[in-house]
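ARCHIVE CARD
Drawer: 12
Card no.: 0347
Subject: one protein chain, sequence and derived structure
Cross-reference: see card 0346
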Amino acid sequence: MSERYYKELARILARNGIESASPEKNTLPVLLNGSSACRVEPSGDVCIFPDDLRSPEADELYHRVAPFSRMVKEYMTAIERAPLLKATALDEDYKLLAEFNGAVLAGRETEHGYMFVTWARDYEGTGVICGGYYLDAYEAAKQDFAIRAGMIQNQRLFSNDQLLRIYQSVNDTLDAGCELTQEDRCTLSDVREQIEDILPDVKQRIAEIQQKIIDPMQGQSM
């Protein structure tokens, strides 16, 4: 399992611009500028060895890797242990990951990654309809399942773009020297940390947005 897990995790990390090396010492080294900054264990935990890089950039990478390592471990373990989805007229075999209140969450490994699907049970309860397909998008599939199953209200969720704007606003407020109570400052700091957990690359995304704003301005001044 650990070999397959490391292969899949390395693929997901690469898709998100994070470099890793071949497994060693029963861990997957995660690289920063070609050197190991942290390592992922077979359990999905991220650890730091004495000879790994230490710097603010390495610490930020550590926190970016952790959500991916946990996510990949979760869905690979779930698919390995889950029973087959029993439903009529399916062209492919899917593993049943969850079912509640007429909603179904299923998944399977494909040549191009892991496919996750949310369905509604049909009237007779023997088939599935209205599929929502998510390739390499496990968290989005879980969220869709929770909404379909009535576990959470769609109005309570923020899109990634909304979270980015909230994060920027929180940063601007905290950095502007506004008169805030200690309680308000702690609340805003907690919101910022929560968004960083949801979007591990939030700082990179904001930097890219800011760069897109700066580039046209630089072009006009030349």
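Annotation on reverse: The chain has three domains: 2-79, 84-156, 160-221. The chain has six helices and eight strands.
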